[in-house]
Design goal:
Blueprint (H helix, E strand, L loop, with lengths): L2 H15 L11 H16 L11 E2 L6 E2 L1 H13 L3 H27 L2 H12 L2 H7 L5 H16 L3 H14 L1 H17 L4 H22 L6 H6 L8 H14 L3 H5 L19 H14 L5 H13 L2 H4 L14 H19 L3 H27 L6 H13 L6 E3 L8 H9 L3 H6 L12 E3 L2 E3 L10 E6 L10 E4 L5 E8 L1
GO molecular function: pentosyltransferase activity
Main location: membrane
Pfam families: PMT_2
Length: 494
Amino acid sequence: MNRYLIAILILAAFLRLWKLGSVPPSASMDEASVGWNAYSVLKTGVDEYGEFPLISQRGYDDWRRSTYLFLTIPFIAFFDLQVISIRLPAVILSLFTIWATYHIVLRLFSKDRIAILSALLLAISPWHIYISRLGHESNAYLSFFVFGVLFFLESRWFVAIVFFTLSMMSYYAGQVLVPLFGLGLLIIYRDSFKKFVVPIMVSVPFLVPIFWTIFSPSAMVRFQGTSAFDFTQKKITNGKILMNNYLSHFRPTWLFTNSGSESFKVPNLGLLYVWELPFIVIGIISLLRRRDVDHRAKKLIFLWFFLAPLPASIATQAPHAMRSYASVVPWQIITALGLYWTVSNLKIPSFIIALTLLLVSLRLFYPNYFIVFPREQSDSFHFALSKALPNIFSREQGVNKIVFSNKDNLYQSYMLYLYYRHFDPFTYQRMGGTKSGGFAETHAIGKYEFRPINWSNEEPGLYVGNVSEFPDGVTGIGMTNKTGKEVIKIVERK
């Protein structure tokens, strides 16, 4: 393997493994759901609802894809149920993604330096690092998609189809991107169409039941719940929504800046480094004008570049870094092309430029991610609740009733309870399992209740709620977030 690529992978591994158990500061509600349900499948063969989650897992009634859940099972079996077990598959996949990106670019442009620059930029990308340190299904979606592209370019058609299918099965964005991208590949490489026929025909009998499952009504619940469209409106209205959402993913302020605690962004940084902007412009111009680049390579990069934001454009909360995650690779490839052609034309040693930009990037990224991020965004990862739960476990003896709020800082607290308690899945199934996982549903697990707190009507017991749920003057034990702000209070009512 190329020694520079080895060095890049070592750097990438450090940036993704360093403090993995404490940055992000604790398990998010999605990580807790993935982790405990994987733990349940490992122990009992079924999830919290008593079902085997073959394609989708009901979760909080949003039917998340199960691929990443299954990837975590070996790690939970080996390391037990902890946040590192849930995040490690994402880290490993991200390293393979960087490796695969290098080989994709090498095949497209036949220049090792462009491939190395692309891998390096992806390795230090704040967008890629942030999401690859989360135990989230989008990591499997992106990695399998990139593997599909690589094996397609290597003419390993069957393997490419397998990975593209896995990408669709891993995250809802794949259901939009992969079919359109696959059609685009067939058009771009239509001269080789005869080579595709046999692999596609052989794959059809296996793909039909998979497609039937992933596009089934129950599996589409999440899409329906997050769709940006109002189908009671005229088509022209939905068309404007789609166009506005799509174009928002190319807005410079979203890509290069951070107005505050924006989702999936490192504090004080955009998804891309500001210094990348001029090289992106140069890369696009060079890609359009240079004639020594295979026209099919150009079309593939632009196809990827323009299709990747589409899944996020048909959903709410656009622009959305997670749903448009597949964009991160073409952005870095285009930046690498701009860097390469700038260095080549100015006759500047590429090593000096690469080292300078690397040091500048790390100087920006390291303190903002490893120091500022866990402090400023601890509420997003239920940090205060992660500290409150052990306190409750130590005091539960002799208490007949324990009530957790299920909103704001205690949102989906029932799942965090199962996760931090390492609650035995067999016992949970005997108790009836989860009755409903809806966004605002109440739950009961033995003497534990997870519901809104109405303090004036509550009976004696131990209560864990948001500070705002208790009247002024009610004393209790306060739990703070990483900034020192008290956000949760534990109160015993006698």
